[in-house]
Amino acid sequence: MSNYLFNDKNIAWQQLGAFENFRYSILNIDKANKIIDVIFRFEPHNPIVLHRHCALNHTFVIHGEHRLHNANGELKAARAVGSYTVSPPEPMPHRECGGDEGAVVLFSIRGTEGVMYEIFDEEENIIGTLGMQDFVDLYEMNNRT
After folding, report:
1. Distance between CA 52 and CA 82 in Å, rounded?
2. Residue 133 burial (10 A CB sphere; 0-12, 13-18, 19+)
């Protein structure tokens, strides 16, 4: 079997505000069908901000290992390269990061025009949200020519 190498040099990675340990690139927004396709690059063993998914997420691990941690830091799941997961909205917040090589993961966020992600502080208080219009604004800001 062949080994495939993923090269992300042609992806226009963006930083989300002050969050420094991951990058994103919005690939497509289909407002009519309520679908956002975005690719995330997670650093190795450096979990991102505590958050909750409020919409259906389809994920595909393109490179590395995608790790999910409960709010208390306990490893919840480790998804190997090539893993495809369908995850409904979750009531419990979590953090995500890459394994030893980091991770690149395609997210297809589906089915809502409302809140898609809630962002929490360390005491699990909601400090922000991301919804359809936020993604549209980010996409437009990052794709101005």
Report:
1. 23
2. exposed
Tokens of 82: 């090539």
- State the sign of the Cα–Cα–Cα–Cα dihedral 58, 36, 43, 81: positive
Structure tokens at 97: 């990061």
**C-alpha to C-alpha distance for 25 and 58, rounded to whole angstroms:** 16
Q: Which amino acid is at 141?
A: M
| Residue 14 neighbours by CB under 8 Å, 6+ apart | 23, 24, 25, 26, 138, 142
Is the whole-model pTM more than 0.70?
yes
Whole-angstrom CA distances from 143 to 12, 19, 74, 126, 131 are 9, 20, 37, 29, 18
Count of beta carbons in the 10 Å neighbourhood of residue 110: 17
3-state class (DSSP) for residue 133: helix
Read off the pLDDT of residues 103-132 as tens digits, 9 standing for 90 and up.
999 999 998 888 999 999 999 999 999 999
pLDDT for the residue numbered 144: 77
Q: Taking the chain, what is the end-to-end CA distance rounded to the nearest angstrom?
A: 42
